[in-house]
Amino acid sequence: MSYVDRLRARERELGRPVRIGLVGAGQMGLGFVVQAARIDGMEVAAIADIAPDRGVRAFARAGRGDVRTDGDLASAVERGQAVVVDDALALTHLPVDVIVDASGVPEVGARVAFAGLLAGKDIALLNVECDVTVGLLLSRMAAGLGRVYTVCRGDEPVECKALVDYARDIGFTVVCAGKGKNNPLDPTATPDSVAAEAAAKGMNPHMLASFVDGSKTMIEMAALANGVDLRVSRRGMTGPYSTVDDLGKIFRPEADGGQLPEAGVVDYCTGPVAPGVFVIGHCDDPVVVEEMAYLGMGPGPYYTFYRPYHLASVEAPLSVAQAVLDRTPSLAPVAWNAEVLAVAKRDLVAGELVDGIGGETVYGITDSAEAAREGGHVPLGLVSGARVLRDVPAGTVLTSADVAIDETTTIASLRRLQDRLLQGEPVRDLVAA
After folding, report:
1. Where are the alpha helices (DSSP H) in 186-285?
2. Distance between CA 142 and CA 127 in Å, rounded?
3. Distances (CA, A) of 148 to 110, 114, 226, 299, 331
4. Are 281 and 171 in contact (CB under 8 A)?
5. Rounded distance between C-alpha atoms, residue 36 and residue 44, angstroms
6. pLDDT (mean) for 190-207
7. pLDDT given for residue 237 in this prediction
8. Which string of b and e fits 70-101 if b means at least 16 CB within 10 Å?
9. pLDDT tens-place string over residues 77-103
10. What domain of life does the native source organism fall in (predicted)?
11. What pLDDT is attached to residue 431?
């Protein structure tokens, strides 16, 4: 039975649809609101945005004009009225089933996810930036509370995980999993340098800068590595140019003529593979090799499994359905193999403040969690608002000797708990702390 059939059945049984509280009504949030409105059995019941008018406009685009912004908002939700608030944490006090965070801000995601789980809500993130910083703690916490924590469908890590699961399910060894990068890599890109392109595309320039400078790709591949238990072969991965036809030739170990230092890793490429995702599977059994050749999959033993698209907010509601109906995540960390480290985008001067992802001061680069820990490096998701302690040349992978993060933030507090979790402390004790 399809998800929509099951959602309809659930609505008939309970007398109401799945209620969603959404954080952020920007580009991704607007897309989510409109798409969810087209799916029977679910509805966005409330939107939180620091600019409430944006939430009201999002509801209007989805065909809902009777919006409440004050009074007894919980009762309004129960009656099926649309609600808009300016505080994301207010969603945790409303009778919604799932909170979806589309803010893209790590600190907002951490606050909402932590408070939402404690309030008995399932959590779905269109905020991979938060997941690669504290996702392991949130996932373990959700499991202990009987809730679901997930990264949403439509983003490359989740759609690539589906290919990983498929390849493994049919008996192939996963050599590499990755994505095509849409934009040429320019680590120095800033909101100002991409402003004209962002305006032409109707995008937030900070978001576009995070795509062009590589941060978003690094974040997505780290989330994938942690979500399917693959590794990062080297800092920054390899990132070659490739066509779809050449994926299986390039993303194989160097010993077999490819460019990978080792098998069982995540990576990315530039070129016409974007906006798709791919998995390279290996099988050298003669019977399988012969059958795959007959089926048009090439000579082997390396095979390309490819999906030519990912549909962002259009697919994201599927994760809400999966969480509510199956009680499973679309993607959540099962290991902590990868980190995204902050790198100085330009020369940094002692005393200045770091502006964070997609800004003017830093970009992200993926490395193994072990290398990050041994080098004392600072995760990208923690650097917003950090103070530079000493002059740092451009290209420096920042450490705790270079910047002092703001330890008062929720995400910094959760990161300290996650570090303790990785050292073997029980999550039940950590949540109490």
Report:
1. 195-201, 205-212, 215-228, 247-250
2. 17
3. 15, 12, 17, 42, 10
4. no
5. 7
6. 92
7. 97
8. eeebeebbeeeebbbbeebbebbebbbbbbbb
9. 999 999 999 999 999 999 999 999 999
10. Bacteria
11. 66
**Strand (E) or helix (H) holding 343:** strand 338-344
Structure tokens at 232: 């990062």
> In terms of Cα–Cα distance, which of 389, 405, 377, 406 is closest to 348?
389
What distance in Å separates the CA atoms of residue 85 and residue 22, rounded to the nearest whole number? 10
| Burial bucket for residue 54 (CB in 10 Å: 0-12, 13-18, 19+) | middle
How much is the average pLDDT of 246-262? Answer: 97
Tell the residue number behind the tokens 């570090």, with chain if given: 419
* Pair of tokens at residue 179: 């994505």
Structural contact between residues 124 and 99, judged by C-beta atoms closer than 8 angstroms:
yes
Instruction: Note the pTM of the prediction, 2 decimals.
Output: 0.97
**What pLDDT, on the 0 to 100 scale, is given for residue 183?**
77
Structure tokens at 369: 């969690």
Neighbours of 145 (CB within 10 A): 17
Contact at 8 Å (CB) between 16 and 80?
Answer: yes
**Looking at this protein, which amino acid is placed at residue 50?**
I
Is residue 432 predicted with pLDDT exceeding 80?
no
Residue 125 near residue 109 (C-beta atoms within 8 A): yes
Strand 82-85 and strand 98-101: pairing?
Answer: unpaired
DSSP assignment letter at 355 = -
Q: Which residue has 């690539």 as its token pair?
A: 160
pLDDT value for 5: 98
Could you tell me if 148 and 113 are in contact, meaning their C-beta atoms sit under 8 angstroms apart?
no
Q: Which residue has the tokens 């000493």?
A: 390
Phi, psi at 169, each rounded to 5°: -65, -30
Rg of the chain, C-alpha, whole Å: 22
C-alpha separations of 104 from 98, 182, 212 in Å: 17, 19, 16
> Distance between CA atoms of 17 and 97, rounded to whole angstroms?
10
Q: Using pLDDT thresholds of 50, 70 and 90, give the confidence band for residue 198.
A: confident
At 233, phi and psi to the nearest 5?
-70, -30
432: its two tokens:
């109490």
Tokens of 238: 């390899």
